[in-house]
Write a structure and sequence with these properties.
Layout lengths: L1 H18 L9 E4 L2 E5 L1 H9 L3 H9 L10 E7 L2 E6 L1 H14 L11 E5 L11 H19 L3 E8 L4 H10 L10 H18 L4 H13 L2 H24 L6 E4 L1 H5 L2 H10 L4 E4 L2 E4 L10 E4 L7 H13 L4 E7 L3 H13 L6 E5 L2 E2 L15 H19 L5 H21 L7 E2 L2 H4 L7 H20 L15 H11 L1 H11 L3 H20 L7 H24 L9
Parallel strand pairs: 5-6, 5-11, 6-7, 11-12, 13-14
Antiparallel strand pairs: 1-2, 2-4, 3-4, 8-9, 9-10
């Protein structure tokens, strides 16, 4: 609804600008605390026409014509700004549209196939806290893009040809695999022991190098060892991802591009480039003219390919299957991702859109780090769930233990997911689970509780036999009611902005603001105790809030509970 209002403002303003004798393609619409939409178009025009923004603003304003039955109630000037306000028609249609569209409210009409790659952690151990941010950002973006209308396919790119996996394979032949542990944790133990042995007893390193070469050349026995090791680790990783409500459509093994000949064809193609050179028997590409000082190594001196070479083949393969490619990568991949994009540009291949995220840390001393060893996602989730259970026991001492554990489970996952995406990807963040699971803080539990409260009001209305199928939206005149309706209308705008800018934090912020608007409404406006002429409309507004809160939470990958 808000996007239609915005389009109407843009159209009317464009006509007014033209009628005033000015030319611009940019109406400069922005959100404003002083209006429903504000335009700073006068600032854009001032330098070109050598007039003050305030004068230009007045001329444009005098040419604004708002038609009857418009979503715009009025326009006003405030110095060099033109402010626009929604009409009663807009408010009424918003409530009716939410109730009509229900779970589809907020869906947009974008078209096209998107392949979004995220997580893609090496299968040499469990996911850790750094991987979690990648996974949550990627999964949330996929959900946002789907609601925006795209056909989205999520992929996990399995690095099965790196040295780490060769170390795991060698380690499984030399160290015990602890079957009592979760499989990815048992693989990590083997990997750690193997690495220590390779450092202490360097004579084993050639064995690992030999295993790597055998796998790249396709030795059947070695292939099976790699597949068994990777499948074992991935089983544990997938279990952790499922716990976080994260799903991948496809798991792509990088070795398939070696086996298919794609990597060799890529190296042959690069070898013919003028910028390619052989240095110390290795094939390299000079990217200095593209602002990248470090040359990209394409093939080692021993003839084997590198991760980036195989990644180029992977992206070439994706190009033929989608309209957009999106990669979610950690900040430590900035250089390699810029090299990848530069090479694809040189080869006239489609470039991926890269979402770079900074890393997430834990408060000092908040959790044992096992003397420098990483904190696994499983450990973190276990600790957050314990903290959530303590909160639930304090909040709901009257409920049975099974209910408390159920609530603690969805609250903890929601807390982790929300706390990660509420911060813009490019900003570093510290995850403090004591705050994340606090019902009083404006995090996931706060939003979930708003949804549960809306469900409770609807249930109570049903128990009392109060119907609201028929209502008059015109009676929703209280300040808090109007503010809530406006916030409901902005859901599609949050989806649109997050999808265009690949910023899931836009949706996280919106969900929190919607929960806050609903709580303000509930605090100051009686619903079930209201007079009959107001009660049905207010119940309808509660139902609208329940629907949009559920849609927002679902798009964030967070449970929308009916009680908690």
């Amino acid at each position: 609804m808000f996007l239609k209002f915005k389009d109407e403002v843009s159209s009317i303003l464009s006509n007014a600008v033209a009628s005033a004798g000015f030319e611009t393609d940019d109406t400069s619409l922005n959100e404003s605390p002083h209006a429903d939409i504000s335009s700073s178009v006068a600032f854009k025009l001032a330098p070109k026409y050598r007039r003050s923004p305030k004068d230009i603003c007045e001329v444009i304003y005098n040419n604004i014509k708002i038609p009857p039955d418009s979503y715009i109630e009025r326009a006003e000037t405030a110095g060099p700004y033109i402010n626009f306000f929604v009409s009663r028609i807009f408010l009424n249609e918003t409530t009716l549209r939410v109730l009509l569209d229900r779970e589809n409210f907020g869906n947009l009409g974008y078209k096209g196939k998107v392949i979004l790659e995220h997580t893609s952690a090496n299968p040499d151990g469990p996911l850790h806290i750094g991987h979690i941010r990648n996974s949550v950002i990627g999964d949330t973006l996929a959900r946002i893009l789907k609601r925006a209308g795209y056909d989205v396919e999520t992929q996990y790119y399995i690095n099965d040809m790196g040295r780490q996996i060769a170390v795991v394979v060698w380690g499984l032949s030399n160290f015990k695999f602890d079957k009592t542990k979760k499989k990815d944790h048992a693989i990590a133990e083997v990997y750690i022991n193997a690495n220590k042995s390779l450092v202490d007893e360097k004579e084993h390193s050639p064995e690992v190098n030999g295993i790597m070469k055998e796998y790249e050349t396709g030795n059947p026995e070695t292939n099976k060892k790699f597949k068994d090791a990777i499948d074992t680790c991935m089983e544990g990783i997938k279990e952790s991802l499922r716990r976080m409500n994260i799903h991948h459509d496809k798991f792509i093994w990088e070795s398939q591009f070696v086996r298919s000949g794609s990597v060799n064809r890529m190296m042959d193609r690069i070898r013919k480039l003028d910028r390619a050179e052989i240095k110390d028997d290795a094939l390299m590409v000079d990217l200095n003219d593209m602002g990248i000082q470090k040359s990209l190594v394409i093939q080692r001196s021993d003839g084997t390919s590198l991760y980036t070479t195989r990644d180029l083949a992977y992206h070439e393969w994706k190009t033929g299957q989608c309209d957009r490619m999106i990669d979610v990568l950690g900040a430590d991949h900035k250089l390699i991702s810029s090299q990848l994009k530069a090479m694809l540009r040189i080869l006239n291949l489609k470039e991926p859109e890269i979402v770079i995220f900074e890393f997430v840390s834990l408060p000092e001393g908040s959790m044992s780090t096992r003397r420098g060893v990483f904190i696994s996602a499983d450990e973190l989730l276990d600790e957050v769930e314990k903290a959530a259970l303590l909160e639930v026991r304090k909040k709901r001492p009257d409920t049975d233990e099974e209910f408390k554990k159920k609530v603690a489970s969805f609250v903890s996952i929601g807390a982790v997911r929300y706390d990660i995406v509420r911060v813009s990807p490019e900003k570093a963040t510290t995850f403090d689970w004591a705050e994340a699971v606090d019902f009083e803080k404006q995090g996931a539990p706060f939003i979930q509780y708003a949804h549960a409260r809306a469900c409770s009001i609807i249930r109570n209305a049903g128990d009392e036999g109060i119907a609201f199928e028929t209502f008059d939206p015109n009676v929703l005149l209280e300040e808090q009611e109007i503010a809530l309706i406006k916030k409901l209308s902005c859901f599609e705008n949050a989806i649109d902005s997050a999808a265009r800018e690949l910023k899931p934090n836009f949706l996280a912020i919106y969900a929190r603001e919607l929960a806050d608007a609903f709580n303000q409404f509930y605090r100051y406006v009686p619903v079930l105790a209201a007079e009959p002429e107001f009660r049905a409309a207010r119940l309808a507004l509660v139902d609208c809030s329940r629907i949009v809160l559920a849609n927002a939470l679902d798009t964030l990958g967070i449970t929308a509970p009916e009680s908690m």
